[in-house]
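Render this sequence as a predicted structure.
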Amino acid sequence: MRPPAREHRFGWLAPMVVWPTARWLLPAPARRPQGGGTRRRDDEALFAAVSFILTSHAPWRAVPPGFGVSWQHTHRSFRHWRDHGTWDRLALVAHSRQAPDQVRYWADRLAASAAGRGYGREPEDPG
């Protein structure tokens, strides 16, 4: 029996129908001012883990080990993507391209869930 194709390994997670669109919207990895760190290896696994947490409303520490990414890395990626407007752009792109209903539904749901988890971002100084 052949193993499943790499791009479909998280196909069991319904929100992953948006992955073909989302993959092009992810910002470049954040640069560490002190340098170092490791190269981002698996955007698909990170996106799947973030999608799982956003749709299940589970705490970040509940990222299952099957995703192959730590909860800390998952949360950092979520914050980075949120701060760059990835979730809102995903919903806009899904609607502007007249994507299938299922893609638009999950793009909207992920964007709304991400907005609900918007805590932790410093408000901009209006002055």
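Summary. The chain is about 45% helix and 0% strand. Helices lie at 19-22, 43-56, 71-83, 86-96, 101-116.
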